[in-house]
Amino acid sequence: MARMNMVQALNSAMDVMLERDPRVVVLGEDVGYFGGVFRATDGLQRKHGEHRVLDTPIAEGGIIATAIGMGVNGLKPVAEIQFADYIYPGYDQVVSELARLRYRSAGDFSAPVTIRTPCGGGIRGGQTHSQSPEAVFTHVCGVKVVMPSNPYDAKGLLIASIEGEDPVVFFEPKRLYNGPFDGDPHKPAVPWSAHPRGEVPEGHYTVPLGRAEVVRPGKDVSVLTYGTMVHVAEAAVRATGIDAEIVDVRTMAPLDVETLCTSVCKTGRCVVVHEATRFSGYGAELVATVQERCFWNLEAPVLRVAGWDTPYPHAFEWDYFPGQARIAAALKQVTEAA
Amino acid sequence: MTPRSRLHVPHPPARPGQEPDFSYLKISPAGAVIRPDVTASARDMETLSLEMVRVLGDDHRAVGPWNPHLEPEELQVGLRHMLLTRLFDDRMQKIQRQGRISFYIKSTGEEAVAVAAGMALQPTDMLFPSYRQQGLQVVRGRNLVELMCQCLSNTHDMCKGRQMPIMYHWGSGNIFTISGNLATQFPQAVGWAMAAAIKGEDRIAASWLGEGSSAEADFHYAMTFAAVYQAPVILNLVNNQWAISTFQGFAGGEHRTFAQRGPGYGIPGIRVDGNDFLAVYAVTQWAAQRARQSGGPTLIELVTYRAGAHSTSDDPSKYRPKEEWRAWPLGDPIIRLKQHLIALGEWSEERHARLEKELDAHVSAGWKEAESYGTLTSGPSLDPLTMFEDVFKEMPPNLKDQQRELRELREAQGGTRSAAPAPSAAGKR
To answer: pTM of the entire structure?
Structure first.
């Protein structure tokens, strides 16, 4: 075991897979010689060579499209899109191509491409470096969508994504790269070394896709969340003293309905939390699933805490970010309801 | 031996610790390149995409058919704009280092690209810059305080706190809003120019992007539409050699010049010394005249060098020789224009030093005023409730609800909280 932050854990996952499987290649803007603007691929080109870790032209559509071609020709490409906010030029290649190759060719063709991309705010990145666009991918049939909340899961889920035969869009909450940020920007940063999930095996292991995890057991209310908001929710729960059960969704598609709904049926109350904007956000899917499966167990309406329905601003970042106060208010509201 | 394919991986001429090497750069002598008539066919001027238009010679004299014969007063204005741009950049970078703004992007070493082009266009022409042409704002007389307030996201911020620093806009100055996503403005400029032609105006559009982002599909949309409709637009490709850590070979510059893409689309492509104020002025003037006469678009490759980091989030010493900029064979645009004016007997080191001091004081005064309107960490701040405005023309019910929710939340928390510093994101662009 080693202490790793999330960047090191992701780096280790790619390193392990480049070592184990000659089909694995890594490509993206600045990922080669430089090692990535967030250092996630640091040292990989030096170690595995420039035919397996490739710098690319600045063309997200080109990166995803060529990754598809490589995948069709037997490789397992891991493509980095530098910021999730830059992924849209590649959207057609994901929606119309990557997600449907297997279906439209009745299994004759497929491309096991993993697209890694940093998402989320809290870094003063404004509208082009802060977005959480997971819902525009979970709505696409044929791609898996993942977002880890800690280094251990990040490495295990990334290895599982690369080893799988289906395409995966792998979102990395960049505010968690260096520590478990709890939503309070006034507190000094906490490193991953102080967190149990900063303990990461150096070798190969997987965290299976499609499985949520109960990260805090509780009996009064279920909080369904993922990414950075797992830690923000934990802090809000501590602050309110409410005995909430926090479920880290981890894989948004396919969804682990069983774990989520077992929790909600037990507690009878539910708050859904995500950083992405609220309207038609992924939370709507969670709420719909909960009401279908848990309706007769519910004691209160299911609430959502999410980003406001505006582009992500540069100023007022902490008025925009769905922080502890808003989660605490929602927790109180659902637990105090009759 | 069995034939087999092998991937070619471009390599820059030098990495950290190695000697800078710009021998790959083909440079024409000043005055050597022909200047075709603006009505000439694109087919008859393909040589312009291979050569390099240069006016200023090593002896600091202006030579050849591209000499725009500007009056000394105009040259002095150009020098002033470039120097002001540089001093402004230096100051803002320093302020970012002090943590008083979140991010900055300098244009150091490539000031002529924006300043000379901006001066060669009409104030009514519409500009679609990328994030490294702040010189255009200077040319059009923007009050620096407004730019500083945008970087500060303060109470006088033209973007109302919604954009990262340097993402300016200026409707009345005919400068489009800058996007953090690359190359998107290029085809938009073509559309703007098509509209000008549809409406029968004589205004033209000009856009800028980096050689790195010319790999984006948007570049090719722009070229195709501009060629098909012969839109009155100037498409400027700023080849500053580096796109964060990848050199221009990764954008396709190893085998052909970027200007050569023009003839491929049936558009004149002109390769120009981007650090030669007079040459940039002259080719822009030529392209503008051509566009105004229904001659259609021009692709201009401006060969320059990104002397600084990509942004304040970047550390170029990790991927290129630290002193590479010193070896750049096309020099510094400010020094070159200064030497030219001195050679003309229209400038002196003393006057230059005086001007520098005057402009520096101007920047200082501007900063003092800008700060009084608030900073990221202190002073008056914008009302966060304004973040719900301008999503739509009329605020829809869901946003009204959310605005009310935030108001109540803030009241419950006792009003304003001070903003906290945040870690900077590497590679933000």
So the answer is: 0.94
